[in-house]
Design goal:
The chain is built from 12 helices and 19 strands. The protein is an alpha/beta fold. α2 links the parallel β2 and β3.
């Protein structure tokens, strides 16, 4: 299998680190890497060549690879350079937006969507959503601490005592739990909200208080993802979050529903009632944001509250983000590739779920 890695033009991460290249070349694959692809993650070209990879130019890699390992799907303008039937391994988010996969279908390519890997025990080592969410949760708190004009931990001095910052985490999935753990380590007082009652024990184990709204709807078939709630529940949730937001110094929002726009949980009216200088970091910015005023890719100030909308928080930890993503990729390759050839075992739940498009044919149920 001829595997290509290109420079992620708007991302500091790289899809495969030298250690991953070494693993794939040892398994009867050839690996070509665009010159400078790993620089932003501090992996130079020499590290790749030492691992058995070859350095090549972008056009050559796009035109002569059987498989491309990517973080973001290639630009539509570059798809015409890629031979029909090439396997594109990336995050196509088919549940959210068909605009990323329709051009792939039109050109007869195959799309493996890493965000579609099922959350089952066998696939845990390939779960890039969890890998990146963990880093984003950590970075969100670090970002908030840097912007907050207050101290995170309690401070006792001869001049008096400063109480710890109050942090509210909305959504106690992987990103939320990492945010809780990081905020606690920095000495903050932390509360966390999640519609899934199963999250209570995990939140409490990290030393945070679990904020619960009774009557949440849960769906075991949702594979651990949050599900749409009733209007009655949403009203109760709105009232409780408004109370908590008014007292919070920092709010970290992570709530997303697979295949839908992120629910708006922090309204403009709530922000008006928050303390001056407070900070909101909206990890759900890429799907519309949990905060009504979030602008993805920007940090804004409204009503004296700083609102951070950043879909690339994990990219800010580029070394470890690249290492984890690369490991996710290599673990998936152990399932897909045998003796350097792709084996399409449609009975395998991992391949069945991840293969969104096969030779131009839409396979995944995305509606």
């Amino acid at each position: 299998m001829r595997i290509g890695i290109i420079n992620e033009e708007q991302d500091k991460r790289v899809a495969l680190v030298p250690e991953g290249a070494k693993q794939l070349t040892a398994e009867k694959n050839s690996v070509k890497v665009e010159s400078g692809a790993g620089i932003s993650a501090f992996f130079d070209d020499e590290a790749y060549t030492s691992a058995g990879a070859e350095i090549a130019d972008r056009k050559s890699i796009l035109s002569n690879s059987d498989m491309l390992l990517l973080l973001a799907p290639p630009r539509e303008s570059e798809l015409d350079l890629i031979p029909k039937g090439t396997i594109l391994v990336s995050s196509f988010q088919p549940f959210l937006d068909h605009r990323l996969i329709d051009p792939v279908i039109a050109r007869g390519h195959t799309a493996i969507s890493m965000d579609m890997i099922p959350r089952i025990t066998l696939a845990q080592s390939m779960d890039m959503l969890s890998s990146m969410a963990s880093l984003a949760g950590y970075k969100a708190v670090i970002e908030a601490a840097g912007l907050l004009p207050r101290y995170f931990p309690m401070l006792t001095t001869a001049a008096g005592s400063i109480p710890p910052a109050k942090v509210l985490v909305i959504g106690a999935g992987v990103a939320g739990l990492q945010a809780i753990a990081t905020a606690k380590r920095l000495g903050a007082s932390v509360e966390a909200f999640d519609t899934r009652t199963a999250a209570r024990e995990e939140v409490q184990s990290l030393g945070a208080k679990f904020v619960e709204v009774e009557g949440a709807r849960e769906d075991k078939a949702a594979g651990g993802y949050a599900v749409e709630q009733t209007e009655e529940f949403k009203q109760k949730q709105h009232e409780l979050i408004a109370q908590k937001a008014e007292k919070a110094d920092v709010i970290i929002t992570t709530a997303q529903i697979r295949g839908r726009k992120a629910p708006v949980l922090i309204t403009g009216e709530m922000i008006k009632q928050m303390k001056p200088g407070s900070v909101i970091v909206d990890i759900a910015a890429s799907t519309g944001g949990n905060c009504e005023l979030t602008v993805d890719g920007k940090t804004i100030v409204e009503h004296q509250v700083t609102i951070v909308g950043n879909s690339f928080l994990s990219s800010e930890v580029s070394v470890h983000a690249s290492q984890l993503y690369s490991k996710n990729m290599c673990n998936f390759m152990k399932v897909l590739l045998k003796e350097g050839e792709a084996v399409w075992d449609w009975e395998n739940p991992i391949i069945k779920s991840a293969c969104t498009v096969y030779n131009g044919e839409l396979r995944a149920e995305t509606k």
